[in-house]
TrEMBL record:
Cofactor: [4Fe-4S] cluster
One example GO MF annotation: metal ion binding
UniProt KW keywords: 4Fe-4S, Electron transport, Iron, Iron-sulfur, Metal-binding, Transport
Example of a GO cellular component annotation carried by this entry: cytoplasm
Domain 4Fe-4S ferredoxin-type: 1-29, 30-64
Name of this protein: Ferredoxin
Amino acid sequence: MALYITDECINCDVCEPECPNGAISQGEEYYRIDPNLCTECVGHFNTSQCVEVCPVDCILPDPDHRETKDQLQRKYLALSGQATAV
């Protein structure tokens, strides 16, 4: 499941540099996460780094983008160029 940032975001700028996939960017009012790039850090870390550093706990699982760990792993492999053609 991709993550998303709620409107409780205080724009502290700590999450964006922690994302290994470049999925986090500044939105109009607060930071946002691109669900097409978010793997919840699967393939990079054991935990979602943005969640770990967020001081206000405003990063949650996105109910509109449900993915299993296997799907997140496949997305990671595709994004990193490691996916093999079937």
